[in-house]
Amino acid sequence: MKEKNKSEIRKNTDPKSKLLTIGQFAAMHGINKKTLMWYDEIGLFHPAFIHPENGYRYYSYHQSPILETILLLRELDVSLEVIQKFMEHRSAKKLKCLLEEKIGDLDRHLVHLQAVRNTLCSHHQNMVTLLTMDLSKISIVAKEERRLVTVEIDPDISFEKEVELITAETEKYQLGRLHDASYGSMISVSSLQKGDFHNYSKLFIDLPVHRQIYKTKNTAQTGLHLQPGGSYLRAFHKGNWDKIPKRYQEVLHYAAQHGLTLSGYSYEMGINENVIDRVEDYIVQIEIPIASSYK
Question: Is the whole model's pTM more than 0.85, yes or no?
Answer without folding.
Answer: no
